[in-house]
């Protein structure tokens, strides 16, 4: 009988251990997030019931709760009581209050608007659409999630690494007793992406098991963590300069900053760094920097590879609009391919949050007098024009304050064009530019600074802009757009071209009058454009035509783009939403090089790198030699001029940290190699790679040196790519980071890594040494 009674006691004991372990884990993570005693975090940890919406007929109650890592959301079914991991807060792109998602608009009634919210994820993962029991509860969920996501995003890389390793330790501790057996240690090593043989794992375990108990606990786990996270390369660098009883003095730190990092540094700068990054209060009191403090400093954004001054708007934003490269999207409404993929307002939200400043709206007649947006003559789904304008209005200036261009591809009848004009006017209000800035007829574009918070319309116009300043009798009342203007302006399939041969497009005056600085016209050559086109008249070029011009008439194209805007778009054959290389078009001075933002690829990585700087404003000032109408610059022939500033780039790829698994199988470990690429004018394009390191994604070391010649540094981009080596097939992508050559910081630098969607991999990175020298 006593044997029968003992089982529940053991079960209760284990449950108490689990509760105590969970409390301890929560306390550690709450402290790390800086949210001790925060009511919003406690709300998420307690959790609650929400109605999950998948369709009009599938709405089910689920219990959602934040786990003890303060990062992972779990859900439990009310019917089966089964729990499973739902998502990580790292994966959240945006939290939308109300019925903003396509799913909630389609599958719920207006009366539940105030109780609805959606979680929009990074990448292509579907939204999570939810309904709370009350408006107050919905607001509480949104507020709490936004706060914790914000705090996670603001963690330092050192804190993020600690959080990640601690989470892996929790996963490895299967029975949640705060102890690690030898088998759990091996499981942990696999979780953090490192494969070691049994002998080494046993040696590591015994070295830490000071109590000889057969498991690690307390300080033994801390010792195990210290052994794993030891960075020999950091030890060597630190030891070279730590000349004061094993610590760095302010003068030692100044010596390091000036000699290795090639920066200007004073003792006052060193004191600030010690005060900010030294974790040991005793060392801080003595004005000394420990190795931990040194590493924390090297992980901080100000010390990483990207010049921190370039993270803010640092360029002159008072130049004419045509003097900037502008982050631009093609067929922005599409989430996937060009033939049958879904159209969604969320695609606009995603593009705008990534800093896109020119979005495309493909407009067609809809039922009940409401214009629609979709890809014509295909099976792509359809969305309301007015819903798109509302989404653009709400998210246009969350990432950047600088102007957004709405590129209209207009296939609507005159009546529905008038509806389009009404929606844009009523929704965008005074932010919509409907007349030239200033007094009188302008002779050049306004600047991004003058257009802050404004929307520009790109499209057809019935007459010249000068007509706005002519007498009323001179105004052109014709509603026809000539066939010449309409043809070849956008990406047209054969069916669309045949349709246009049958009828001319009639243009509503209300819509025409909204086109001020971006009037779409046909391109008849550079001489014709120079002689006959006003500054605000711009052409769109299919990629093949643009590439030909950039190769065969590069200097003429560069000069054309000093005073006029050019928009480039992908070829119609790219039905899979693939992209083209934007670099040759930037080399020709083209401003609006439109890519499929929904597609993950090398070209989008490079595009993100181009617009990474200048505060992610979506506007990058072209070099001075591309803003001069008399320029002789030709990226192909590279004749002598101010653009030739031959540099030698030396990069040493030293090590990697916490590289993620590509294959999610438990036993899979990456064999990482690093590629370093230079993108720019043809003479600068180059690529070199390291050898692969077998079975180690946690702390691989390469210590390999590369050298590159860079002739036009102002147009060059440097890209670091990590791949998982495979001798029998193509390597798999692990992560990458691209930045302008002119934004590189010299010396020993950490390089953050982005995943294939362009989002930060929280703990992953490379450690490199960078040197740039004038070539002899």
From TrEMBL:
Q: Where is the EF-hand domain?
A: 160-195
- Residue segments, region Disordered: 474-503
Protein source organism: Amphiprion ocellaris
Where are the compositionally biased (Acidic residues) regions? 474-494
Q: What is this protein called?
A: Phosphoinositide phospholipase C
**Keyword Membrane (UniProt):** yes
What does the entry list as the binding residues for Ca(2+) 3?
A: 331, 360, 362, 409
Bilayer topology: Peripheral membrane protein
Where in the numbering of this chain does the PH domain appear?
43-150
């Amino acid at each position: 009988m006593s044997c029968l009674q003992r089982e529940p006691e053991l079960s209760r004991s284990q449950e108490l251990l689990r509760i105590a372990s969970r409390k301890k884990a929560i306390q550690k993570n709450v402290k790390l997030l800086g949210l001790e005693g925060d009511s919003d975090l406690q709300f998420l940890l307690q959790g609650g019931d929400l109605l999950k919406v998948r369709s009009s007929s599938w709405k089910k109650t689920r219990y959602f709760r934040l786990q003890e890592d303060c990062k992972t959301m779990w859900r439990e079914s009310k019917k089966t009581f089964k729990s499973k991991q739902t998502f990580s807060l790292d994966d959240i792109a945006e939290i939308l209050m109300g019925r903003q998602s396509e799913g909630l608009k389609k599958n719920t009634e207006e009366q539940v608007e105030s109780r609805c919210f959606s979680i929009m994820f990074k990448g292509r993962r579907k939204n999570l659409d939810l309904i709370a029991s009350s408006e107050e509860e919905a607001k509480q969920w949104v507020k709490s999630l936004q706060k914790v996501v914000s705090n996670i995003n603001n963690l330092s890389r050192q804190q993020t690494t600690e959080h990640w390793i601690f989470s892996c330790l929790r996963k490895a501790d299967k029975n949640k007793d705060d102890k690690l057996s030898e088998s759990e240690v091996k499981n942990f090593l696999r979780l953090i992406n490192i494969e070691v043989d049994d002998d080494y794992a046993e040696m590591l375990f015994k070295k830490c098991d000071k109590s000889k108990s057969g498991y690690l606990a307390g300080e033994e786990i801390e010792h195990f963590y210290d052994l794993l996270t030891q960075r020999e390369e950091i030890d060597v660098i630190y030891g070279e300069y730590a000349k004061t009883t094993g610590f760095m003095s302010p003068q030692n730190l100044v010596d390091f900053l000036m000699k290795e990092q090639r920066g200007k540094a004073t003792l006052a700068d060193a004191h600030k760094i010690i005060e900010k990054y030294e974790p040991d209060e005793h060392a801080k009191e003595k004005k000394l920097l420990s190795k931990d403090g040194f590493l924390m400093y090297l992980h901080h954004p100000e010390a990483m590879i990207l010049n921190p001054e370039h993270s803010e708007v640092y360029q002159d934003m008072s130049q004419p609009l045509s003097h900037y490269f502008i982050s631009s999207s093609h067929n922005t409404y599409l989430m996937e391919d060009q033939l049958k993929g879904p159209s969604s307002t969320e695609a606009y939200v995603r593009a705008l949050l990534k800093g896109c400043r020119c979005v495309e709206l493909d407009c067609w007649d809809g039922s009940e007098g409401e214009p629609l947006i979709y890809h014509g003559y295909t099976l792509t789904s359809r969305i309301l024009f007015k819903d798109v304008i509302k989404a653009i209005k709400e998210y246009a200036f969350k990432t950047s304050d600088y102007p957004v261009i709405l590129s209209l591809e207009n296939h609507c009848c005159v009546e529905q064009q008038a509806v389009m004009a009404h929606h844009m006017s009523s929704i965008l209000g005074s932010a919509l530019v409907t007349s030239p800035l200033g007094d009188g007829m302008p002779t050049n574009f306004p600047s991004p600074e003058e257009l802050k918070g404004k929307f520009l319309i790109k499209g057809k116009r019935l007459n010249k802009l000068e007509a706005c300043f002519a007498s009323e009798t001179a105004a052109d009342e014709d509603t026809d757009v000539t066939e010449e203007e309409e043809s070849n302006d956008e990406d047209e399939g054969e069916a669309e071209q045949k349709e246009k041969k049958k009828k001319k497009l009639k243009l509503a005056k209300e819509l025409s009058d909204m086109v001020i600085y971006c009037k779409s016209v046909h391109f008849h050559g550079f001489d014709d454009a120079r002689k006959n086109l006003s500054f605000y008249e711009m052409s769109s070029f299919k990629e093949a035509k643009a590439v030909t011009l950039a190769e065969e008439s590069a200097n003429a194209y560069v000069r054309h783009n000093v005073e006029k805007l050019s928009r480039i778009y992908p070829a119609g054959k790219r039905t899979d939403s693939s992209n083209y290389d934007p670099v040759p078009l930037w080399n020709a001075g083209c401003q609006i090089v439109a890519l499929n933002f929904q597609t993950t690829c090398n070209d989008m990585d490079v595009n993100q790198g181009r617009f990474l700087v200048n505060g992610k404003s979506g506007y990058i000032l072209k070099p001075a030699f591309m803003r001069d109408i008399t320029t002789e610059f030709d990226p192909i022939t590279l004749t002598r001029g101010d653009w030739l500033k031959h540099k030698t780039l030396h990069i040493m790829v030293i090590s990697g940290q916490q590289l993620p698994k590509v294959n999610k199988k438990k036993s899979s470990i990456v064999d990482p190699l690093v590629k370093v690429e230079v993108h720019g004018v043809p003479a600068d394009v180059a690529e070199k790679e390291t050898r692969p390191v077998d079975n180690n994604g946690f702390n691989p070391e390469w210590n390999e040196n590369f050298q590159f010649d860079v002739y036009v540094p102002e147009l060059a981009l440097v890209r670091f790519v990590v791949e998982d080596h495979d001798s029998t097939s193509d390597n798999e992508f692990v992560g990458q980071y691209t930045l302008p050559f002119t934004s590189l910081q010299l010396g020993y630098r950490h390089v953050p890594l982005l995943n294939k969607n362009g989002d930060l991999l929280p703990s992953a990175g490379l450690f490199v040494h960078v040197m740039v020298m004038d070539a002899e």
